[in-house]
Amino acid sequence: MAAAAKEILTRRPVAATIRLTVPAGGARPAPPVGPALGQYRLNLMAFCKDFNARTQKYKPDTPMAVTITAFKDNSFEFTVKSPTVSWYIKKAAGVDKGSTRPGHLTVTTLSVGHVYEIAKVKQTDPFCQYMPLESICKSIIGTANSMGIKIVKDLE
Amino acid sequence: MLAWNFIKHFPCKNLSRHILRDRVRPLCLFTFSTPPSSFSITASLSYSSSSSSSCFTDESFTAPYLSVRIHCPKHVLDPFSEALLCFGASSVTVDEDIDEDAASGSSLVSKEICIELIFPVHEEVKMCISQAANSIGLKEIPKFKVEIGDEQDWITKNQELFQPVEIAEMLWIVPEWTSPPVTEAVNIILNPGFAFGTGEHPTTKLCLLLLQSLIKGGEAFLDYGTGSGILAIAALKFGAASSVGVDIDPLAIKSASHNAALNNIPLEKLELHLAPSEDSSSGREIPLRKQQFDVVIANILLNPVMELADHILSFAKPGATIGISGILSEQLTNIIERYSPFLEDISVATIGDWVCMSGTKKGKFIDN
Asked: Which of B30, B40, B160 sits opposite A124 (nearest CB)?
């Protein structure tokens, strides 16, 4: 109990939380990494080297979702998650952008099977491991709908 | 791991092929299930004078970007941030300080928080924000303000971070705009620009220490992936006869040649070569003879070091020492597997999560 209390007291104060999409193995100090991290005086090259090393196992340029916690002493921590749900949806549906008028204009369709497959992959994300597959599926369907992509039972 | 079995047997298009490089061994996708405290990196802020030194950047670094401040109802912060990233924002930042000021300044508890977004300069900010707001069911689009981002600001801040680093006793890496803290030490003066290698990173330290132990005087050294040129310059300072630095990034070559001048290295001692990058179809080979070097170090990343293994090894004389870094400890087995057929007396040094593997090249040296 005392150890936990001590941990809370010595926890470093947070300056900001930064969320970014960075291509796997392709972090460079240019925008958006540069300005987003540079603003809080974080060591850009250290982040790039670390991020690139940790994402070597992915196909180059796969967009990874990164969350960086910048502390007031200019140190930082980051977690990397699998590509965003919208990226998977676009890849599976074969489209580049979502619809410009979601709800009114359907760009394309995806099957329930695709949703399931994406959900299975997303479930391996940290912090998602205990989420029931059904909730993940619902969230994916929601994102797809907001992109103007309809989910159908089977693709013709 | 079970997920992969499902996906393999599933009749639909196999998405895993789009993501993972290695189809044969489906490794666990995410190694980040450990609590966030595992990747802590410290950097200290330098309060030294302004960095008036020139900065080696190309257009991509000084590219304009859009900086947007937008209000966000606190209760939808997470979904809204996610949605913004989905619909075109490059980054979403929540500044903790702003929240505190707002809370302490007013008697009302603020229901909104101001977040900062970065967009590529050609992005339709208004459309993206309205799509994002729409997708999470916000009734109205929050107020926002768009400005052109000030790149000089963050570039300067980044330069200021760099301060003298003591690698070992009497071995310092010193920024161009600071005077060496210990004048009698071996001081490597650097202006890294945006090339990798300031001496602060564990891999740079590992390689510098390896170099220091290997160079006795008169060696020919190859720095594959030279970045700022730090290793090539260090080798010469330790007594090597000549250094060659190779990199695929023209900025690195620029930075390395500037740093060589800072350290008064004559041109004939330090050669720099721009290596053809993967997509370059010029077929140009680096003009170096095979089996030319006594020490070869490659501090890059796992994939290049694996793909270029034969190439890197080819430049070393038999009996030369090869050092490989830029590798995480979890990636070490891959490297050892790849290089051990060609190296003997393999040893590994570690700092934190990073390792440096070194060994001597097998084969007899044919004295002509």
From this structure: B30
